[in-house]
Amino acid sequence: MENGAAKPVIVAIDGPSGTGKSSTSKAVAAQLGLSYLDTGAQYRAITWWMVSNGIDIEDPSAIAAVAGKPEIVSGTDPANPTITVDGTDVAGPIRTQEVTSQVSAVSAVPEVRARITELQRSLATSAEYGIVVEGRDIGTTVLPDADLKIFLTASPEARAARRSGELKGADVHSTREALIKRDAADSSRKTSPLAKADDAVEVDTTELTLPQVIECVVTLVEEKRAAK
Ligand SMILES: Nc1ncnc2c1ncn2[C@@H]1O[C@H](COP(=O)(O)OP(=O)(O)OP(=O)(O)O)[C@@H](O)[C@H]1O
Ligand SMILES: Nc1ccn([C@H]2C[C@H](O)[C@@H](COP(=O)(O)O)O2)c(=O)n1
Q1: Bridge partners, residue 9, by sequence
Q2: Is 22's C-beta closer than 6 angstroms to any atom of ligand 1?
Q3: Does the reported pTM lie above 0.80?
């Protein structure tokens, strides 16, 4: 861990599913003594709440009407990131197929995005040493003044192989189709879609190991910190 008297640094890491955002962001934050925020977990948490409360996911106005109800709390220690909804630990339930298949629809609703964006900005500004925030619209919308913006990419084949390795028994073809479908939905929504910010550094991770990606991002953050 190193943070010393360094000024807080804000790092935005965006990209499609399975490009390595969470693994990279957590490791970079831990190595540099920064906080870490998984914004996908927040969208999953509000989706979990909608599903658990019987809200019709196909009705954006029904989702919008209750978007302010659940209290979502994210813990930002990279060694132990946590997520609760109304005091319940939902770290496990938000990773189910049921939530994954519905999160794009819920996160496309503008009232949901406004609510979650406010939480994200508040956590980013209160991080004493700085923070690595990962998601889909961090560099474009949530933190447009971030010190460093990274956009991770990887081929659909590499991403599907990584995910299939994670989900024991999942076949690569259906995993590839599912992630392409989710990326298409996330990229085509009207409100703050998945997109690379004009001033983001693009890192193609297809042929890189995870340690190589982490090293590349740590170097970029250190350069920014030295220049502050
Ligand atoms: N460069 C890499 N080489 C090999 N495997 C990797 C690499 N980067 C990440 N992985 C692995 O790929 C899987 C997906 O990574 P991760 O969850 O970090 O991606 P993500 O972009 O956060 O995905 P999502 O947006 O769906 O949450 C994990 O099992 C991770 O260990
Ligand atoms: N900044 C963000 C982060 C996430 N989402 C939505 C879209 C994703 O499909 C979903 C789950 O994210 P993951 O856990 O796979 O990173 O959440 C978003 O709209 N904006």
Answers
A1: 130
A2: yes
A3: yes
Q: Is the minimum distance from the CB of 70 to ligand 1 under 6 angstroms?
A: no
Tokens (6 digits) for 160: 């599907």
Say if residue 144 carries a ligand binding annotation. Answer: no
User: pLDDT over 70 for what percent of the chain?
Assistant: 95
Q: Please write the tens of the pLDDT for every residue from 41-91.
A: 999 999 999 999 999 999 999 999 999 999 999 999 999 999 999 999 999
Whether ligand 1 lies within 6 angstroms of the CB of 209 is answered as yes
Phi first, then psi: give them for residue 6, nearest 5 degrees: -60, 150
ipTM of the complex: 0.98
Ligand 1 neighbour 96 (Cβ under 6 A): no
Tell me the domain boundaries of the chain: 9-220
Question: Can you count the helices (H) and strands (E) in the chain?
Answer: 9, 8
- What CA–CA distance (Å, rounded) separates 93 from 89? 9
> Using CA atoms, how far apart are residues 41 and 72, in angstroms rounded to an integer?
10
Output the residue whose Cα is nearest ligand 1's atom 11.
Answer: 162
Q: Which residue type does 198 have?
A: D
Is 18 annotated to bind a ligand? Reply is yes
Topology given in CATH for the domain delimited by 9-220: Rossmann fold (3.40.50)
- Distance from residue 20's CA to the centre of ligand 1 (Å): 3
1-11 burial, b for 16+ CB within 10 Å, e for fewer? eeeeebebbbb
Closest ligand 1 atom to residue 152 Cα is: 21
Amino acid occupying residue 138: I
CB distance 26 to ligand 1 below 6 Å = no
